[in-house]
Amino acid sequence: MSSGSFSKVAVIGSGISGAVCASILAAGGVSVTVFETGRGAGGRMSQRRETTEDGRVLFFDHGAPYFSVSDKEVMGVVRSWEARGLVSEWQVPFGSFDQSTGKYVDFDKDETTKKYVGVPGMNSICKALCSDPGVEAKYGITVGKVDWLCDRNLWSLISLDGQDLGQFDGVVASDKNVVSARFTGVTGRPPPLDITSSPDLAILSQDIPVRSCFALMLAFSEPLSSIPLKGVSFKNSQLLSWAYCDSSKPGRSHASSNCECWVLHSTAEYAQGVIARTGLKKLSSDALSKVAEELLHEFEATGINIPHPFFMKAHRWGSAFPAIAIGGDGKCLWDKNKRLAICGDFCASPNVEGFKMGLKLQSLRNFDAFPRAEQHLLQKTRSGAVVSIIGLIIMATLFVHELKYYLTTYTVHQMSVDVKRGETLPIHINMTFPSLPCEVLSVDAIDMSGKHEVDLHTNIWKLRLTREGHITGTEYLSDLVEKEHSAHKHGDSNDHHEDPNKNKNEHGLGSDAETMIKNVKNAMENGEGCQVFGVLDVQRVAGNFHVSVHGLNIFVAQQIFDGAKNVNVSHVIHDLSFGPKYPGIHNPLDGTTRILHDTSGTFKYYIKIVPTEYRDLSHRVMPTNQFSVTEYFVPIRAIDRSWPAVYFLYDLSPIIVTIKEERRSFLHFITRLCAVLGGTFALTGMLDRWMYRIIEAFTKSKTGSILR
Ligand SMILES: *[C@@H]1O[C@H](CO)[C@@H](O)[C@H](O)[C@H]1NC(C)=O
Ligand SMILES: *[C@@H]1O[C@H](CO)[C@@H](O)[C@H](O)[C@H]1NC(C)=O
Prior knowledge:
Keywords: Membrane, Transmembrane, Transmembrane helix. The chain is α+β, with helices and mostly antiparallel strands. The protein folds into three domains: 380 residues, FAD/NAD(P)-binding domain (3-Layer(bba) Sandwich); 63 residues; 249 residues, no CATH class. Helix content is 25%, strand content 31%. Helix 1 links the parallel strand 1 and strand 2. The radius of gyration is 53 Å and the shape is rod-shaped. The structure holds 2-acetamido-2-deoxy-beta-D-glucopyranose (NAG) (2 copies). One 2-acetamido-2-deoxy-beta-D-glucopyranose (NAG) binds next to loops.
């Protein structure tokens, strides 16, 4: 069970493709097992260790002699290998030999392409990659059967000798023999992998044509000084295609040990001819020595003085170089459902750079179906789900927040000098005098010129209130009270009337006045109050308005109140403003309650009005005013002749404030949204990976202790 919960991948073949592939997968956190038929890593990039009869140890790069790089992506990887000391450039003279004319031609023709070799052997790269952390390499094991376990969604690998090699989430076949009929030719068994069930890989069912090659390893006791080149390609030769001086490669320790090693490669035609005679089965040593003799003879036939080698051995490369490229534009063959990849140079161009296919595996991870992603989606459901849900919640929260932020408007304040002229200033009043009946109250306005605002259109109402505050009657003030406006009262009807000219001058306290005094006293005993509200339009100059009993004839007032100190000007201001309200305005006097408890007096509110313009989103302009206020109370003194009142003294600021409502930019909102969502997404991914790693490490250590 524990092994099933890991992401395991089997890589078949430790050649350059397999090794690069294994290394990349391991770097991505996958546990990789490499199966290699040979005794060491390398495939065709391998090095052969040979011991002569007299006990000398020789090394040959009997496979690929070198590799060159034209692809930029691959070059980056090769540079990193160079930095790790795994590869080195091989700078020796190369050329061609024309067998028909017996002359060397094309000296150094190829000097522009850099040739790289592994250090100290060609196999060093594969060896190093196969021992990367996370890669386990098993040598000397031939995979004999690769089965897809449908019910468990896993691959099962069995070796050629029937050993169970374990079960894996994915398989990378970098050795084409896994699917090739050649496997049968070599081992007498069907190929390990049956690809007829994978339609994506059906292209492989047509056998891959390959070219074979023989390699001849030669060791001379002295350098071949008669050959000016260290790498020779043969033209017009039936047998030989290439000869390389292995000892001239950088980092070959045996180069100093008094001998020179060469490797010759036969032509494909020659190898085919031999294989046609002998079949694909392992060659007998006789047959091999015959090949060796023939190749050496051809080499000697170059006409130059070649001493007899003290060591000579031939090796058959059954599938050295594929003849054609399949698999399209350098793609791996890839069965996504079963997580099976078939990679290698045989998928691409027939050269050593085919290992680029290994690099291409990197992109496989992006398919998100390869083991790591698969693990997240299929196996780590609990931790993954928790992280995902948290991520989604965070995203939703941030989204709502951003949306709210975008939808709310904000205001911009600007100031300038007020250049408006000739407009009036509307004063909205709504206040209650709980201890004064409407009959005695009057509203008066005076501007700076001292002029009473008698001409202005006013709209002030007075409501009679009972002790409990219920409205019992309405009175309308058509005109501001001044001078001898004694009493205009029609308080007993709910209707309002234009004040008729019924009132008379009351110098002599006529019968009207008597009744009025009686009524007021009555009302005061009942605890009647009065609510004053309405709009006053005044000139836009400094001035004041006040609510008082000044409208009463002084004698009448004396009779009613029996002295100024008994005029209870306690009041509640419900609303005092100088124009329409805009969102966010604060009128500082709203809700002000002033109750007198002992002596009476005069209230004075000093008001500074700030002209204000409010522009909303649709650019409608609302002219209005804000104000600030300070207040002052003067208690009445015995010697004072004035009567208590409530004064509002106002002044206008020359500065106008423009408040603009604005909306946040939609693009800005989108940008923030992208940042928020993308950031959360990335963070969640990171968390998920960490969690996966931690859980993996935890489980690993647990199974480890069980095994011990
Ligand atoms: C005056 O203020 C009172 C108390 O807030 C309120 O009920 C009444 O509607 C206001 N009157 C007007 C005309 O705004
Ligand atoms: C003035 O009137 C208010 C409200 O009716 C009352 O609470 C207060 O006691 C009165 N003040 C005096 C001095 O009578």
